[in-house]
Known about the structure:
Number of domains: 2
Number of helices: 10
Amino acid sequence: MTTKTLRIREKTIFDGIFSKYILKFIFSLWFKMAGWKLCKTMPEGAGITIAAPHTSNWDFIYALGAAILQDVKIYFSIKDSMCRVPILGRWLMFLGAIPIDRSPTGVGQVEQIRQFIETQKGKRVFFLFTPEGTRGGVAKWKTGFYHVAQGCGLPIFLAKVDYLSKETGVFHIFKLTDNKDDDIQAMQASYKSVYGKYPTKQFPPYQGRMPKIGDKEAAIIRALYAINSIKGVATKMEISAKAKMGDISNNMFDFLIEKGLVEKGFLERAEITYQLTLAGKGCFLHLHSQSR
Length: 292
């Protein structure tokens, strides 16, 4: 007897009246009373979504609340065998499970997602991954989400549940470059300022809030990020032109260097060059959402 192939379910809990009205009202009231707020970034369309740091089951509840309040459909990967368990399997599929069959005849995760997003034009669909892979402490991320994003041609949505600022949702839409290691390091740097439920368990380790900077310093960070992605370093003149600012004071650069966001490079044509540190790249990812 041939086993029926399971595919991603189009209609899930996020499409029903219970989610659209009842759960939305409950989460709206809860967030308001508890002082939680949503990130300003509201991506359109589909994306591979990573949620970090993941140190508690509460992370999913807050992420679920953000999704429902912003009319987002969440899908998550799970073993095909789990989705075949009577009653439980149907419930998991209804919640948004993506059945992964790793047998030679199974349809791969990338192919399933690619086929599915063709039917979801214009809808907010997030394929959720937790790069830590567990609520316990880890020493590195699992980067399967990156390969799925590459294979599907989708951006990566960076999402968080920050228990210090009480903020949840997507804070950046990350478009992949040709440098995987640099991309992963930049993403991880942005999560070092996110406070998990149990910060001692999170990876990368929590290093405190992002330093407060003004609009002019933020403009330098944005300009440097754009320039660094092309040539790596930039002179003060190049940064001024990209940021559409006049003469930038040395004190402004000294402040950013002191905060660990920018580092001074070597002389180029008798001029000092600058580039972003990993912390600076992480800061940019948060600045991106604040400007929307």
